[in-house]
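Translate sequence into structure tokens.
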Amino acid sequence: MKTRLAAACGIVLLALTGCAAIEPAAPPEPSTAAGHGAIPGAQELAEPALHLAAVDAAGIVHHLDLLDEHESVLAEIEPIDELVSDGRYLFGIRDGSVTVIDSGVWTRSHGDHFHYYEAPARVLGEIDGQGRAAVVAGASGIGIRFDDEAVLVEAAALGEGEIVESFRIDIAPHTGFVVPLAEGAAVTEPDDTGAVRSLRMVDADGAPQDSVPCEAAAGTIATVVGTVVGCSDAALLAVDGDPAAWERIAYPTDAVAPATSFAAREGRPTVAAVAGDSGIWLLDTRERSWSHVELGEQVIRVGAVDDDAGRVLALTATGAVLVIAEGEVIARTEPLVAASLADPETAAGVAFVIDQHRAYLNGPAEKAMWEIDPADDARISRTFPAETEPVHFAGTGR
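Result follows.
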């Protein structure tokens, strides 16, 4: 049964003092194309309206326009413990609820080309449940696991300003997730001890279908090839989100610790994950193959740029950003986020945002965000001071 919640409220964008480090550029001009790609209520742009979203400890959601460096406030919500984004919507996670915010900027693929949009930002509402939620954002839906419930939210309805639950079903309590697929979802399934042993396919109404073995499932990401889920001995790949077509990509026989999370530039085939204490896993979903890079120093975050040089970013325990290509470190920044990483509470929110030309990093304790050029020896091209700590961090407009 589908549940429909009205949008909670609209948010008026509040102009704040910008933190311009370069001469502000003109805002994007609306596209002159008429009809094709038009979305009611949205303005089509000639280029993507890329932004950084940062949520501080008080729950204030800041939005920084990367073109003209204008900053606005999208919302003031209850404090959150985690932030997830699909490039348009922001999901603020805390114990017992998830706040859904429409950032008002997004990109839509039309196969061989893209369309870029801007519309008023707004808070869409709350999704409630027991315990701390795990959120996985997909193209067709948003998967949410609470302590004892699995929920799938329709992505298309969010564009209409509504939260529509395709299903909400009871599950055995465990640490896992709900992965949206082209139809329905894959839900982690525990045994009697609470350990995850498999993925249970469910249809769009939540009815159970077949299951796929996946010991200790941890980490999931969508690539241009298909949806990835990490298991203890392999990665599962569902090509085109087909729940009946999972492929198993086994680790090499001498593998170190398995991947527990994946990160990459959106829409690329190769994704990265931390491998043990000092290495990187690279999973090429086109080639169905793993490769391992040993760095010889502790690594806590990674992200695949997957550009023409196959670059990968890594954040070391000292707070420096490394650029890796062909298995070698080719550039390194000074320690940027050492103070943030020294505190476990702020360290948890430090993250990369990676796009085609730049990468971004937040430093809560440093009250700053950095724009890094991976193709130019990890040059810091811009630094964005923040009035409050950017505790949680995501990119929008992508």
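Note: Confidence is low (pLDDT under 50) at residues 1-33.
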